[in-house]
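Team,

Forwarding the record for the chain on the shared tracking sheet. I've put the sequence and predicted structure together so nobody has to dig through attachments.
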Amino acid sequence: MPFAPRKTWALPVLVRLYRKRKSPKLAPGRNGKPEKKQTGQAAEKQYRTRPQLALEMIQIVAWWPGPRKLRVPGDSVYAGGSISRQLPANAVLISRMTMKAALFQLPPAPGAGRGRRRKKGQRLPNPEQMAQDPAQSWIKTTGADLWPQG
């Protein structure tokens, strides 16, 4: 922006409407019939969770032209595997995480053996254990350091 060259801007660029899953409701009374009018609810084929809707928007914005890295701030609900494992290569999710989170390495490459492919790799220490490990190097930062200046 020409009027604020040293500021970083976070603007909403997409919006998705979350609709609750459709559930059959009975009309009031003793032997109520199913209600016909249920506004704002999604049928089973149309229903998507909030993280699924967020992932769709992230994928749309990540494919817009340009080699820029997309930084997506999100709540702890969106930090789970439903989004973080499916992010595009140029997208980074910045989110909260519990200090007792179970962290794992990526699964090993599928072998020639029989059986189901592994979904998780070896278990890593949780963030609390990592913070107490003197061999780990930590950098103190603020939220302003996460966003590029200029």
